[in-house]
Amino acid sequence: MKEDVSIIKVEKLVKRFGDFNAVDGISFDVKHGQLFAFLGPNGAGKTTTIKMLTTLLEQTSGKIIINGSDPQANKDKVRESFGIVFQDPSLDDDLTAFENLEFHGVLYGVEKKVLYKRIESLLKLVDLWQRKDDFVKTFSGGMKRRLEIARGLIHHPKILFLDEPTLGLDPQTRNHLWNYVKALNKKEGMTVFFTTHYMEEAARMADNIAIIDHGKIITQGTASEITKKSRTKTLEEAFLKLTGHALRDESASAADAFRTHARAWGRR
Amino acid sequence: MGAIYVMWLRQIKKYWRSKPRMIGSLGQPILFLVALGFGLGPIFQKAGGGNYIDFLAPGIIAMSILFSAMFNGIEIIWDRQFGFLKETLVAPVQRWKIMFGRTLGGSTVSFMQGIIVFLITLAIGFRPKSAESVILAFIFMFLIALLFTALGTAIASRLTDMQAFPLIINFLIMPIFFLSGALFPLNGVPTAVKIIALVNPLSYGVDGIRAALSGMGQFSFAIDFGIMAAVTAIVLFIGTWMFSKIQL
């Protein structure tokens, strides 16, 4: 594996909404075949960054290179190279599990013969093969998540984006999923870029971690480097120390007060 | 090609599986046919207009297609709300293909709806001129479906508000329908109304169907077809452009 080659390269990336900088000049590198964790509190800019990396949102300024191409200039090339599991569900509830995967395969131009084999093996893997002809609307949250992950892998992407893939899943399912992702990462050299709120997950899985808050990257490195730098025992402690309440309240107090006021007096 | 096909197929499957939708959308055309057809029919005949059902049936077929087609746009809003839109937007497929497949699927559904209404008009006594005329009418029916699905989809790709969509569509649909000559002939109306009817593309669609099925056309087929095709092409182009600009 070409361990030292960057597959995702981000330089001074900025996304501005009005006069609010959702992403404020971040730079990072993800090497080929790495498991990269992108951590941060809610509203830190994680999902906005993922949207820019996956061609869904145009950046205000800065540079992105995904698998050798610019996501805005060369959208289709970039889109072919990744699979994504969004934070919110994005399945079609009125289609069956099988149809959702089939649909995805055709959109990504996977050859029919290969496609049906892959659908079968992926559905078996996420334990949904028995339910393949059931409508997705009859599935539980965990089953939908598993199906989405299977879908993200149908076209054998070079990069897999996982935006809080394990949110709301029980420990068994989480464990199962990570084992699978790890295995694919090993076997196929698939790069994985993920966000999560479970720090122990990040510490256990990721080769490299970046922590973002208020649109800026505050630290990067392996889990042990980060805990060493912040002189804490666990990644969770480091995370809290780096993004803790004091920091947040200072810069957001006026807006927060306004929001509380609006909530108390607003019609909702 | 694959992408357009699956986007089309998805609409068809969803329509086929939703029987309430199929049946529910027939209520209004049947009501109009029965109430207006039997209610105003004698007056129309007395005034020398001929058989009102022959005049009305093409208008009601066009109406059912118009309503169903414009509301096809709501699927984009649903897909945006429930996340599926993202799945299609990150796929390595040009956006125009996604949009075109969707529009084609929606138009097919609305066209089928129109055929069902056509069959109902046959049941209540409407008799088309000939078998060939039915094929000609089907061409106009499909053009109406395509035009208004594209329009509804274009509007929906700019809206993020689920509640606003039906309001805006109703606001547009009513004048398009009432001022299209679907219910009454346009030759006796005041000039102002006539001008509005003449810039309304549905007038030409209705006229095309009516000329084919009942032989009661006002314009020539060439004008009906030419204007419908041109407006459809323009709206499709605008809709595709608007869809390709969607950011999430």
Structural domain tally of chain B: 1
Which structural category do the helix and sheet elements of chain B fall into? mainly alpha
Mean pLDDT of chain B: 89
How is the largest sheet of chain A built, in terms of strand order? Answer: 5-6-7-3-8-9
Give the largest interface: A-B, 30 and 25 residues
Can you walk me through this structure?
The complex is a heterodimer of chains A (268) and B (248). Chain A has 268 residues and is α/β, with parallel strands linked by helices. Chain A has a single domain (6-265), classed as Rossmann fold (3-Layer(aba) Sandwich), CATH 3.40.50.300. Chain A is built from ten helices and nine strands. A six-stranded mixed sheet of chain A has the order 5-6-7-3-8-9, with helices on both faces. The longest helix of chain A has 21 residues, at 245-265. With 248 residues, chain B is mainly alpha-helical. Chain B has one domain (2-244). Helices cover 79% and strands 0% of the residues of chain B. Chain B is built from twelve helices and no strands. Chain B has helices at 2-17, 19-24, 27-46, 52-71, 74-81, 84-89, 95-123, 131-158, 164-178, 191-199, 201-214, 221-244. In chain B, helix 5 packs across helix 8 and helix 8 (131-158) runs parallel beside helix 12 (221-244). The radius of gyration of chain B is 18 Å and the shape is globular. Chain B starts with a helix and ends with a helix. The model of chain B has no long low-confidence stretch (mean pLDDT 89). The A-B interface holds A 51, 54-58, 75-77, 79-80, 82, 84, 86, 88-95, 99, 103-104, 106-109, 151 and B 2-3, 5-6, 10, 13-14, 17-18, 79, 82-94, 247-248.
